[in-house]
Amino acid sequence: MTQNRGRRSELRWDPQTIDKKWQAKWAEDKLHHVDNDDPRPKWYELTMYPYPSGDVHIGHWYVLAPSDAHARFRKMQGYNVLHPIGFDAFGLPAENAAIRQGVHPYPWTMTNIDKMRGQLKSMGTIYDWDREIICCLPEYYKWSQWLFLQLYKAGLAYRAFAPAVWCPSCQTVLANEQVVDGACERCGTLITRRELNQWFLRITKYADELLDGSGLIDWPEKIMIMQRNWIGRSEGAEVSFDISHLGLDDKELRVFTTRVDTIFGVTFLVLAPEHPLVSALTSPEQHDAVEKYVQEARAKSDIERMATDREKTGVPLGTYCINPANGQQVPILTADYAVAWYATGAVMGVPAHDQRDFEFATKFGLPIQTVIAPEGSTGQEVLEAAYTEPGMMVNSGDFDGMPNKQGMDAIAAYLDARGSGRKTQIYRLRDWLVSRQRYWGTPIPIVHCPSCGQVPVPDDQLPVLLPEDADFQPTGESPLARNEAFVNTTCPKCGNTDAKRETDTMDTFFDSSWYFLRYLSAHDDQHAFDPEQVKKWAPVDQYTGGAEHAVMHLMYARFFTKALRDIGLLEFDEPFLRLFNQGHIIADGAKMSKSRGNVVAPDEYVKSVGADVVRTYLMFVGPWEGGGEWVDGGINGITRWYNRVWDLLERDPGLLKSSDDSGGSRELRRKLQQTIRKVYQDLDTFKFNTAIAAMMELTNTLQKVWDGGSASKASWVETRKAFLVLLAPIAPHLAEESWERIGENASVHLQSFPQWDDALAVEETVTLVVQVDGKVRDKLPVAVDISEDDAKELALAQDNVKRHIEGKTIAKVVYVPGRLVNIVTQG
Fold first, then answer.
1. What are phi and psi of 224, to 5 degrees?
2. What average pLDDT score do residues 772-792 get?
3. What is the pLDDT of residues 259-312, one digit of tens each?
4. C-alpha pair distances (Å), 119 with each of 13, 49, 467, 473, 594
5. Distance from CA of residue 599 to its chain's centroid?
6. Residue 204 or residue 161, greater confidence
7. Helix axes of 713-727 and 632-650: crossing angle, nearest 10 degrees
8. Distance CA 176, CA 173 (A)
9. Structural domains for the chain
10. Do residues 394 and 360 lie in contact, with contact meaning Cβ atoms separated by under 8 Å?
């Protein structure tokens, strides 16, 4: 932890006393309690709930404090705001920490939550703690289990034997989305593969609807692009290559291609090493070589196998298939660049028109047949590289001379008519693998019965509790499988006493896919979520969190919502109508980490300068979406500004004697209207840094008119009150304390956010730039409504202008209202 990062400026007041005073008062008055029956329009604002890692670090503050300010702003706009918090408390970090420390994950997790809860309260947030959720508690995961069973009964959850991505370090299966560059996204270990019985959710059923996104009001385009790329819809054709001559049960090999126009150029066909027909299609002579190659491929990650710059490898199977377009024999190989999970796991090789296929064919001495050529070419030229541009079809039978784009539809129709192909689309997206071979997660509520097969645990037997005495040391087998008291059970359907419980636990993303619904009735023991409260509050109006969750949490929650809608549990399509992604706070030019020694501990700063200074600095450091760097000099700047604010607000307005129509009074009111407009518009769009800058400018104006004695008491009092209301979402403790000190009774946080008057915000004067032949010669303050004639006359009368036009003929004088007078001369 970084210590003594720099000398800090001292405040004029004691932040410890003021922060605690108002936090206690707000709690006593239940100021942040959310009333479901409040008649005001609802606004559900949510931030991704934190993992209870042990400490609220400055990164948590950077995520949570600005979102709290935005929720406070919405409340002051007149909304009934729900802004809850909870803890994403299951998962590997707790289990791994428990293994290292020799303790159980539950007390480790709950101790961390107790500490973090206190730290979050010290931030001055408006969370209604009566709605807190903790997903590792049975009262929460009971309903995760219930929802799993609803998906299971609807055919959206299923178990299948499939190759699974395995992390050797975490000793558990990973979802495809949890693999980054061939490694576990949590620990960085290179992944391997295992054949396991796994539980999946049918997210692929919703691929097209997830691509659509028409129900989303305001999501970052980059997130939608990431989701679209992950779903990876491809339009093309599925083609059947005949293998009936081999005497197998399967009579054809199905191949998906986006380039059916090149089918006459197929000179080989590649199967993924995991393809179910590899063994059957391998000749006896090739058996050993193929078996060795398949085993080697299984040890490689998909990222490694599909890299375009790696050496091409493969082994012939010793058999062939028949091209349905021309009847030619096509040799079959297995190569690890083909993967079983994508499309059909079979790839047609067209080396003349695909660079990867060209390199593969060149290495293995396979034929290269040109079937698309530039207009005017016969296609007989020897290729140095694959030709991938549009062109005319050649060597393609009846399709010769046809533009290849037209040929796509024509050949697809030709194959369809012969029963050898059809237009279709495929997706890169795979069904969501939700089972994990770890202890600290929600048990999957299924019983395996020798007589009945898979049996859902009845509702009245939920939750299936995690056993407290489990041995959760990782072995590659689920820790629950070693707990006989947990595993051995009676079939709830037939009473068979040899039944076994499912021993895998759920991916923690299952918990976070519906948590936003649980906040609406956090302690309901009859429903996962109260239907009436869902109708009132859902969907979430504004969601904030990191862009790194684009293809996991955010997409899973969207899928969950659509699935629960189809089951009949929800009546809306999208969980989060608006999404804002904040950036990251760094220190010393790098991401914060204990190893770098640049971790900023917020508790230390809260003790010395108070929560409001920390909140404000984090919002002022830069655009929220862009992130920023923690610099102690910056937090000192905020401290100095708040000292000025404190001093100005403490001054006696009775000392101001100017009239209400004085220049200072008008200037102060004008600046106030401009500030209200700016702060309102900026808080509305998460531009906290520029909103704070506008308030700083208003502070400067207050100082100016006070020093000059040019404002009236009424204008000062009016501005002072409005300023505190503007400040309240950003610095809730300081605003509340100052509000009380100027004699106001009801909380500043119950005030309506000010509205501005555009007419009063208009400047009385503007600066007119005077040019002679395009060069600036003077700048004049003039009335905003000055006439063109008066502006020109005034410009020509200035001494510096006279010097530069002396002896010259004025050709013309150009006037740009409110901005410019340009005098053009001759001679």
1. -65, -35
2. 90
3. 999 999 999 999 999 999 999 999 999 999 999 999 888 777 666 776 667 788
4. 21, 15, 31, 32, 20
5. 24
6. 204
7. 140
8. 10
9. 234-426 (3.90.740.10), 632-761 (1.10.730.10), 765-826 (3.10.20.590)
10. no
